[in-house]
Structures
1.
Amino acid sequence: MLRGFYTAASGMISQQRQQEALSNNITNAQTPGYKADQPALRAFPELLMHQMGNHHVPTERGLNFPAQQPIGSLNTGAYVQENIPDHGQGDVRETGVFTDMALVNGDLPDETGGLFYTVQNADGEERYTRNGNFTVDGEGFLVTTQGYYVLDEAGTPIQTDGMEFTVTEDGMLQTPGENIPLGIAYTDNVHDLAKEGDGLFNGEADAVPAGATYTVQQGALEQSNVDAAESMTQMMEAYRLFETNQRVLKAYDESMGKAVSEIARLG
């Protein structure tokens, strides 16, 4: 019976964590470049159950040999192994703001490949983002809304001198006196990158390979790829599963209480 307690409790915990991930997705449904998290639920390792018994051999001495009869497998609960970001392309919306840039995927050489802007976080380390909601700070540098420097192809913060600029489709930022290639990075497996908050990803990425194509659209933003309606449906399903496990846990608790009280009276 104690195994039933743990199984039901693990189900409640896994559904609670799924609710947290879905709630975070809905919260960021309007965040440019946000990639929805998809909780991956796994079962704890299966146990192969056997019935223990004896096999009688009809001899003069009446020999008995131990025997095992397979019953079947038994799972002992579920858990959320990890939250896997969905790196699918979000819709592109025009904003008319010249500092906004949408990075639109073209043909990529790897099915799991992905393109990102390169930025510099508060510790001076390179990070990657799909959020092209940029602005220009008081010193004339192109930065994210959190104040992180946007880097060029050489890994240097982009200085615009506070002037308006144009961005070509191949990612060339053009000011009156200079052409600066945006630092667009490529990874052949987006699942090797880890979310770090503020729309940033941490990991290894390289220069864009020759076989990859993309378009930078100035005055537009890539929207979040969260499907709010689908996320709400999934939240309702997770809530119902949580309630189901809760009722199972309550039933086990009542059975345990009844067994303890009746055994105590018989004693």
Note: The CA atoms of residues 35 and 196 lie 12 Å apart.
2.
Amino acid sequence: MPKYVLTGVGGNIGSTAASYALEIAPPDTTLVFTTSDPTKIPTQTLESWRAKGATLSAASYDAIESLKAVFAGAEAVNLISTWAFGRRHEQAQNVIDAAKACGVQRICYTSFVGADDPAPVNEMPFLPRDHKNTEALIRASGLEYNIQRDYLYIDNIPSFFAPSWKSCGNRWIFNSHDVPGAYVAREDCGRVHAALLLGRGKPNTVYDVTGPEAVTDRQVFQWICSEFGDKGEFIDMPDEELREYWVQRGLPTDISEPSPLPMKLCVDDLLCCGEMVARGYMAETSNAVESLTGHKPLSFQETLLGYKHAFS
């Protein structure tokens, strides 16, 4: 009876991956889910997982012994990137070391588009840097691996950007410079992660996980205004002008600082979202979602219809 350990189920990707893993796992599969704080899992969700045969344990990427306790006997384990910018590599090394100590054969990792940029890490855009380092650790580990490089989530627009539009004078101010990008639904990324953990991917293979088509931010904004009755203006700014705009308004320059503004990203994170699109990192689409899950990737329209409340 093969055992798979799915860590990080308290987050959005991990929660979706958990539910999908239970849909597609063969009957003789043992599924162990972990999170750093099981008490934060909604009761209804936990009951549903347990009813379908999964067990939930506490484990943290920052506590290697807690990982070893659940990795024992597992065929494959996963690592979902966290918000711990600057020490993600330490968390990754803990997962790798725990996996090797327990005889695990394979690791699956949620990386990010651009992690294969050949430039030195300090010359890369902000967001892929930690992922490039983590991918290198995984390759050097000797473990079999599957890596998914997720494109930017279309979910980021209602989650992070839409709340700030009114405070910007009903303007969406961005820096993607009308370059199209194939935004992906976070739900699809979670499903792909479960599929890879359960062995649907090819050994030692990296998958770009994309939406079905490349669209500009302006197109997305215009659709939102048309669909939800919003009225606003799309403003494309040069990178440095956009940085100055947000810094003057008090947006944190350090990821560890909480934002006092409706915009809940730090300056570098915000700027990099547009930069990734503008520099063409997200121009190409892939068939990863359909080939690994059997379902076509969700369009940006299908995804955003689930966030109507964010645009009212």
Note: DSSP finds twelve helices and nine strands in the chain.
3.
Amino acid sequence: MSTRRRPAAPRSSSSGMTENEKKILGFVRSKQGMGATKYEITGGTSIQQALVTKATTSLKKSKLIKEVSNKGGKHFLAVEFEPCKELQGGDWYVDGALDVSMIEDLKEICVNILERLKQKVVTLEVICSCFQKASRDEYKLSRDQTKVILDNLVLDNVIMEVKSNRSSEHSALRIGEVCYKLIGKKSGGGEARDGAFASIPCGACPHIGLCTPDGAISPTTCVYYQKWLGI
């Protein structure tokens, strides 16, 4: 007995794509740099998930879409778009991975700025203006990025956040204005500071020996690390 073959899905005569592929490509393009997950594509196009899988595989093979992975799962983007910052995890992620080395470099630079200014207290705006004068573009932080670095140094017990009360060291500041000061040895107080590694979650994590960039335990997926970074 002969086996009846299932008819092939109709293809667009203009592009060689099936109607499902055209519909999915249009939907993914509409999302631009944010892209869309398979679940979002299914809901946004009303195409069954099995057919979405088949169509996205074909579109990837044709190099019309690409797949980007982040902590929220896999997103499909049209090839003409680059992943937006939200998809990559924010300012502190590169290709979906937390750039720990860059964060530590920026924290060290921030401490050096505070030491070099030789002021009792320094405002966020002053520190941000110093970062803006950096010779390397990746070190030219915005106000919000500078605040994240300062908040981490506060958590590290390296600096202290205080509010001006118009005392001698705050005489040039408005009452209640937020500012920062070094604490520990480098502030002149003689108090030893904890090492940076000891103050981050990794320093006390019992699973650090199992932590790898692509493993089940990794900095990319560590909720404690993300909470510590304020992201």
Note: The CA atoms of residues 126 and 179 lie 10 Å apart.
